[in-house]
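To the wet lab folks,

You asked to see what we're planning to order before we commit. Fair enough. Below is the target structure as tokens, and below that is the sequence we designed to fit it. If anything looks off to you, flag it before the synthesis order goes out.
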């Protein structure tokens, strides 16, 4: 068995099966991403991202206003409105679910979403920081807060059986298609005498045309001119407020292999 093909077979298996296992672990809530400590982002920058919520939740209104890029007569009323939404007491934990850093001629921007866990609620704080140059202190150019109770979040938790039939079909395809493509890929990889083998492998590995299903909104969308490796995908921000987006692509290459590929060459005498 050629080592090159064996390595490729192992890599394909890890990609598909390992990816499904990782999504399963995230979906079950066993592990959720936390980017609070990532290489390349200084503790000072992370502290600046956390500061607006800490100041608002602890009633430090003057510090909030001083940190803004701009303020006006409505700023205090907006701070009061946000504070009225927040749960009482202290958050038991928090995590940075996603972030983005952008640097350009018009300045630097640091955007992030942090979720705060309370006994009966979860708070999502979305913060955008801005500075003209790296030597300047960060200023707050955007700050938004959403609050949901545990009961509200429970109703939004992903449940396959509760999804509409069309969404269920896309999710099922996102599981079945990669496994079908993977098995076909392995068979094509080791079928004796298959030519041109690498063209067949490329055709098999790519799904064509993509349908998307959002479990939060139950919306479906279709992108006809697209390809996906191993015919499926699934994304989730890791936020309790967001749903999953599943996608599936038609495995034309894998189907064509079973219909048109030459049979295995007989063993040499």
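Sequence we intend to order:
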């Amino acid at each position: 068995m050629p080592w090159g093909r064996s390595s490729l077979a192992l890599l394909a298996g890890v990609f598909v099966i390992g990816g499904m296992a990782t999504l399963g672990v995230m979906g079950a809530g066993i592990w959720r991403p936390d980017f609070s400590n990532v290489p390349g982002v200084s503790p000072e920058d992370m502290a600046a991202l956390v500061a607006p919520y800490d100041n608002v939740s602890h009633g430090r209104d003057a510090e909030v206003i001083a940190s803004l890029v701009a303020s006006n007569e409505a700023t205090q009323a907006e701070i009061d409105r946000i504070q009225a939404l927040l749960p009482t007491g202290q958050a038991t934990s928090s995590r940075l679910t996603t972030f983005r850093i952008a640097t350009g001629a018009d300045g630097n921007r640091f955007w992030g979403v942090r979720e705060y866990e309370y006994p009966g609620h979860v708070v999502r704080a979305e913060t955008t920081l801005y500075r003209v140059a790296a030597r300047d202190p960060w200023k707050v150019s955007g700050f938004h807060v959403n609050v949901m109770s545990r009961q509200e979040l429970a109703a939004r938790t992903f449940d396959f059986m509760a999804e509409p039939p069309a969404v269920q079909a896309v999710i099922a395809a996102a599981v079945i298609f990669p496994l079908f493509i993977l098995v076909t890929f392995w068979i094509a990889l080791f079928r004796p005498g298959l030519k041109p083998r690498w063209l067949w492998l490329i055709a098999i590995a790519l799904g064509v045309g993509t349908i998307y299903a959002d479990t939060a909104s139950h919306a479906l969308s279709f992108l006809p001119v697209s390809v996906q490796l191993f015919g499926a995908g699934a994304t989730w921000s890791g936020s309790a407020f967001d749903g999953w987006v599943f996608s599936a692509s038609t495995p034309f290459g894998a189907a064509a292999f079973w219909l048109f590929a030459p049979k295995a060459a007989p063993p040499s005498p």
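Structural context that might help your review: The domain at 43-150 is CATH 3.10.450 (Nuclear Transport Factor 2; Chain: A,). The chain has two domains: 3-29+157-260, 43-150.

Thanks,
Computational group
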